[in-house]
Amino acid sequence: MIARASYPLLGLLIIAAIWEGSIRFFDIPPFVLPPLGQIAERIWTGRSEMIAGLSATLYEAGTGYVIGVAIGLLLAIAVSLSSLAERSVMPLFIAINSVPIVAYVPVSFVAFGLGAASKIAMVALTVGFTVFLSAVQGLKSVDPSAVNLLRSFGAGQMRIIWMFSLPAAMPIIVSGLRVSIVRAMIVAIVAEMLGAYDGLGRIIYEATQQVDFLRTWAAIAVASLASLVIYGVFVWCDRRLVWWK
Amino acid sequence: MKPSVWLPPLLVTALFLVCWEIFGHLPMGRVKVVPPVSAIAMDIIHNHQLLLRAMLHTLTEAMVGFAAGAAFGFLMGVLFAEVRILERMFFPVFIISQTIPVVAFGALVVIWFGNGMLSKVVIAFYLTFFPVTVHTHRGLLSVEQQRIDLLRSFAASRWTLFWRLRLPFALPTIMTSLILGSSLSLVGAIVGEWFGDTKGLGIMLVQAMYVENMVRLWSIIVACGVIGVGLYAVLRFVQTRWIWWGNET
Amino acid sequence: MASRPSDRPIIELSNVSKTFGDGQRTVVAIENVNLDIQPGEFVTLIGPSGCGKSTLFNIVAGLLDAEGSIRFGGKPHNGCDLLGKVAFMPQKDLLLPWRRVIDNAILPLQVEGMSRRQARAMADELFGEFGLAGFENHYPHQLSGGMRQRVALMRTFLFKRDLMLLDEPFGALDALTRMMMQRWLLDIWQRHNRTILFITHDVDEAIFLGDRVVVMTARPGSIKINRKIDLGRPRGAEITTSREFLEIKKELLAAVEEESMKSFRIAQQVP
Questions:
Q1: Which one of B78, B233, C103, C217 has the fewest CB atoms closer than 10 angstroms to its CB?
Q2: ipTM of the predicted assembly exceeds 0.90
Q3: CA distance B54 to C143
Q4: B42: domain CATH number?
Q5: Does residue C153 form part of some domain?
Q6: Quick one: pLDDT band at residue C268, thresholds 50, 70, 90?
Q7: Cα(A115)–Cα(A119) distance, rounded to whole angstroms?
Q8: C234 cis-preceded (ω within 30 degrees of 0)
């Protein structure tokens, strides 16, 4: 166990060594690649700003995530109730989805303003689509003979979905939920970078414009750590929720 | 194809567009966030040259970055799959680093590499190479041991194993990541343009937003969608035509 | 091949053992296996599931190292030297989905470095014999299970080695197809004068095909019975209901069942 964990740790150390070493060896100016210690220090000295930014971003990402998951799942269930409905709306949804999601950000700004609402809408759109597509795929992949077996027991359509299809589709849906976490954070930050009153994305953009690169790196590091922690917690829960995988 | 196949989606799409049109004509607030479809269509027709130029610009940025990212990602994936010690030390770090919102570096990259095409290419590059590396690695290692044993019993060398077995087996998985990467590279190019550019769809989006020209904004979104659908269609064609044996889609 | 003196075995295993795992959790898969196979012989191997048949196979194919002595063609060998010297066919057909039937069959030739054109020319003449004429350019997913097995067998045949190892090649086929394939295999074997070691867990199949049936014990696997089958050749389907056949079957079934019961009990003891 110790031996298995030691390899990635060694890898991390090597990366850190290359980072620090190349700064000294190639004389890279700190505005391109600041030393790791300085980044950590900058996070600490700017902690009140970082915490405020992080909580704003987390609020947007979290609220949007919950709304998106709810809409995505409900839509997927509705669509998979009839194959006609699925065939009819899927091409439209796929067309809407094929637009790079960031292209909708300006529309969201005009519609909802520069505050949190526009970011929540963007996150909900992104997460909603990801969850919707994975749920449709998951619901479609369930074994039809098992569905027929349940139907032969006299089960109705909603009961079959609730008792069998949804649990059977869970592994695929959960992987959609997992991917959505990272996307929610990314979209919230990217939207903030284009315009916001608050949030890590705004700090990143503002600091870059003011040529305060250490602050940029510090904000990116905070965002990365936050994504990582949330992702880790989700994976940990996932192992317990979908135990039959 | 039978009408029962294409008629329902066509009807639904038409219904959607009609609703949009009617909704667009309703009296709304100061700015019409959703202008009528007809207005958007007219704008696209009248400004098609402007839009096409911007599309070409953005597409070039995305594709150069995509090609470089795909090639580099493939090599990294092969390296991780073939060299055990590298895999054990760096692959976990690599997987974890996927949760980093790398687009956030966009603003930095534009400062480093300037306002020109290079900075967008760099962003598209690193957005592409992450998924391609991970999928290549996974695809190459997903070959069942029995298949490897069979080829080994023919005294196959490591190169033969790679070339005749592992690589063809990984191709469907790699293809999946290329489809993912192509859309990410487009996102990279657009976001990169936000932070500094003079032409391209991304900067046009921002300009239209500042003057609250909603019709133009939607025209650009349609243009983005056309590129997105086009890239997807091309890669899907390649996938179904030449790499049809995969079980992953 | 006919010129080779037939008194020297093509492969001789003496006291071959294999242990898996390290430290406290070791499993002895096979122990002191002694087995000789003469050139041109068709030897079938049966034993309870989990008795180490596959381990033995992998050793003979050169995929696993083992303790003990292995002499191949009179010369001593250890482990991986045997890679490329034995034609090996695993249980599953393992055809490559992106290659046409003919290209699947010539895979070992290409691995050996032969050009595709040359290899295809060599394979071409075998298609009729393997009942695959007209299917050269199909893809594996277009074939039935029996046909896919024949492609896999053809691939093994084209890898021209004196000893062929077949690991339950007909295990996944339905009973009727299996009968047809058995007779067909005997036919091919007699015409091509190869040596075959054939794993099965079907006693009927073992007797019907083999010059000799080898029964393995429960784990750790070793040789329990080495029974010569003196039924005449060529053998037809009617032989399976003859008195001699049924007597041999009775004897071997008793042995196999005894070992199966043992391995069943071992399995129950494991917590």
A1: B233
A2: no
A3: 51
A4: 1.10.3720.10
A5: yes
A6: low
A7: 7
A8: yes
- Which residues are CB-contacts of C109 (< 8 A; sequence separation ≥ 6)? C118, C119, C122, C123, C158, C159
Residue C118 lies inside a defined structural domain of this protein: yes
Chain A residue numbers with beta carbons less than 8 Å from the beta carbon of B99 are 182, 185, 224, 227-228, 231
pLDDT tens-place string over residues B198-210: 789 999 999 999 9
Q: What is the CATH number of the domain that holds C234?
A: 3.40.50.300
| Residue B240, H or E segment | helix B214-242
Measured between alpha carbons, how far is C38 from C194 in angstroms, rounded to an integer?
A: 10
Is B164 in contact with C110 (Cβ distance < 8 A)?
yes
* Residue of A13, A50, A88, A183 best to disrupt the B interface, most CBs of B under 10 A: A88
Is the confidence at residue C260, as pLDDT, over 60? yes
- Share above pLDDT 70 across residues of chain A, in percent, rounded to a whole number: 96
**Contacts with B, A 92-131, CB within 8 Å:** 92, 95-96, 98-107, 109-111
How many structural domains comprise chain C? Answer: 2
How far lies B168's CA from each of A70, B144, B244, C100, C148, in Å? 40, 13, 11, 14, 20
- Measured CA to CA, the distance from residue B124 to residue B192 in angstroms comes to 9
**Position C4 confidence tier, pLDDT thresholds 50, 70, 90:** very low
Closest CA–CA distance from residue B160 to any residue of chain A (Å): 30
Q: What confidence score (pLDDT) does residue C2 get?
A: 39
Residues C47-61 have a mean pLDDT of 84
B55 within some domain: yes
- Across residues C182-205, what is the average pLDDT? 89
Residue C181 domain flag: yes
The CATH topology of domain A44-241 is MetI-like fold (1.10.3720)
Q: How many CB pairs under 8 A join B and C?
A: 50
In a domain, B14, yes or no: no
pLDDT under 50: residue ranges of chain A:
1
Say what the pTM is.
0.83
Residue B180, both tokens: 């993912």
Coil, helix or strand at residue C35: strand
Beta carbons within 10 angstroms of residue A28's beta carbon: 14
Please name the residue ranges forming H helices in C76-214. 101-105, 107-111, 116-124, 145-158, 175-192, 203-209
- Comparing CA positions, the residue from A8, A32, A12 lying closest to residue A22 is A32
Distance from CA of A153 to the nearest CA of B (A): 31
Helix (H), strand (E) at residue C70 = strand C67-72
Q: Which residues of A163-201 are buried (b: 16+ CB within 10 A; e: fewer)?
A: ebbbebbbbbbbbbbebbbbbbbbbbbbbbbbbbebbbb
Does C118 share its domain with C228? no
Please say which residue of C160, C188, C212 terminates a domain. C160
Contact: B153, C107; criterion CB under 8 Å: no
Question: What does the pLDDT read at residue A4?
Answer: 66
Shared domain for C125 and C147, answered yes or no, is: yes
* pLDDT, tens digit, 9 for 90 and up, residues A73-114: 999 998 888 888 888 888 888 888 888 999 999 999 998 989
- pLDDT, residue A243, reads 62
Q: A-chain residues within 8 Å CB-CB of B208?
A: 106
Q: Which residue of B has its CA nearest to C79?
A: B153
Q: C223 and C101 share a domain?
A: no
